Amino acid sequence: MTAGETQTQTQTQTQTDTATATGTEADRFHERLKAFEGRPAATAGRAKDAVNEPMIRHWCEAMGDTSPAYTGPDAIAPPTMLQAWTMGGLSGHTDRSSAYDELLALLDGAGCTSVVATDCEQEYLRPLRPGDTVTFDAVIESVSPRKTTKLGTGHFVTTRMDVRANGAPAGTHRFRILKYAPAAPRGPRPAAPLRPRPVINRDNQGFWDGVRDHKLLIQRCTACATLRFPWLPGCNACSSPDWDTVEASGAGTVFSYVVMHHPPFPAFDPPYAVALVELAEGVRMTSNITGVPYDKVRIGLPVQLEFLRVDDTLELPVFRGEAG
Predict the structure, then answer these.
(1) Among candidates 290, 294, 300, 288, which has minimal Cα distance to 256?
(2) Residues in contact with 4: Cβ distance below 8 Å, sequence separation at least 6, in sequence order
(3) Handedness of CA 257, 261, 266, 269 (dihedral sign)
(4) Intervals of CATH 2.40.50 along the chain
(5) Yes or no: is domain 250-324 CATH 1.20.120?
């Protein structure tokens, strides 16, 4: 065997030994994490409010769900609200156990300092009705081995919440997060791609003509005077195909919003806020919020229309937040 072959063999063996040691270390750490499986995350939790009609109404308005099952004397709550009744809000729940916090602290100490919610699963056993008292128990159901994703390397943590209504089982909610160490950027950042182009057709051509002229135009039915947005070929109130337009004042408030962290889309730089803005005229439209940090956007925030040129050939209506 030559000296070169010996050196190559030594390097290969060193790499193998390093990988084995790293794998063993990861296995030992995972065993520490698995020790939390089965431990309670919350015990004898109690919803801060009983199932109630105002919350159901707000939920249905936000979702655009007009099912008659959610109104009237025999109303039930939308099944997907199962988790909503158990949320602790900004003040949290006093019945939360220390095990979940200890698990997250252990992951933080291993460098998994970032977190993203990945998915949830729900099972429904009985409908919830206004007046029901909601209680729950939660358990740390599983902690995955180390996983490598585009976001980074970490562990998936799944909690299972068993929900009861007036003491009787009502459903199960599983919630999964990824606690991870962010991946280091690789190489120089590529040039930003162009924003997607809007699809312009005969039904919305007038809207984009208005944007070109720095006007935000709202359709108005000439038969019943109902305003509508987004643009449609006919009135959704009286079905008339005839319409004209009114120019929006540009004033509005944030009706709802979400902060986009993941997945990344070409030409967008997360995190950024996307809001459902309620215009002074009463219609709502989705757009970006500018002028304030993404984490300062709040429901009710006053906003004002402006036009943002994103590249040489595209200008978009957005809304600038008015910082308090």
Answers:
(1) 300
(2) none
(3) positive
(4) 250-324
(5) no
